[in-house]
Amino acid sequence: MLFKRSVQRYGRTPEPDTPFHRAGQLWDERIGSARVQARNWRLMAFGGLALTTAMSGALVWQSLQSRVTPYVVEVDRLGEARAISEAEAGYKPTDPQISWHLARFIEKVRSVSLDPVLMRRDWLSAYDFATGRGALFLGDYARSANPFGAIGQKTVSVQVTSVVRASEQSFQVKWVETAFDRGAPAGTSHWTGILIVKLKPPASAEVLRKNPLGLYVDAIDWSREIEPAASPTAPPPTAPRATQPLPEGQTIAAPDAGAAVSQIPSTPENRQ
């Protein structure tokens, strides 16, 4: 049997239990528990702050949600309801609605009235339906044509005959203009125009009152149609007049005699 000398291993030797060691452990327990409690309170505070923020955001979002569903009621001239539907946020006007507004736009711009106040109101209303580019065209047309210079002498009546879609963003408008000079008809002309439109939702209550559909005319190009030449027509033939028998005692002079028509009564004295 071999005898080995025991080797002292200081790392595995338990620390001696001394009063200094016990005091250090007690101090560490007191300070450590306080630090742990402070950390837990901080976590609770941050959690409460996050929960409060989330609840506040939810309340704000709920307050912004409308509980009232708006409806649009379409009525006729007599006030009778024709169609009822819910109001849509992204509503897009139909072609008949766009056509009606474009026809009114042409009537306001091309018509000439005897009342300058009425013409000014129509032109201001037309500017509400024009973009910046369309407003430049209207200004150039007003300066060149000078529709306000003939007020009181000349009037122009506009009748829109058709409004059809030409492309995705343009419409073709045809109308007839009848001019009057001091109340007397002065001629009729046919016109054709291409209008490029844009849709932009109203951004304020004032714009909503003036242009509820958000329809704007961006470009205008119109021209007068060539009038067909009137073909000469021959006068209609005159029907022969029926001849009636002359009463007894009346004679008609021949055309080359130059004498007037004489009437000789048929009496017994004249016969003798």
Automatic annotation (TrEMBL):
Stretch list, region Disordered: 1-22, 227-272
Keywords: Membrane, Transmembrane, Transmembrane helix
Transmembrane segments: 43-61
Domain of life according to the entry: Bacteria
InterPro entries the UniProt entry points to: NTF2-like_dom_sf, TrbF, VirB8
GO cellular component, as recorded: membrane
Domain Bacterial virulence protein VirB8, first and last residues per copy: 22-225
Predominant localisation class: membrane
Compartment(s) where it occurs, according to its Swiss-Prot or TrEMBL record: Membrane
Cited Pfam families: VirB8 (PF04335)
Topological category with respect to the lipid bilayer: Single-pass membrane protein
Compositional bias ranges of the Polar residues kind: 263-272
Name by which UniProt lists this protein: Conjugal transfer protein TrbF
Organism of origin: Sphingomonas psychrotolerans
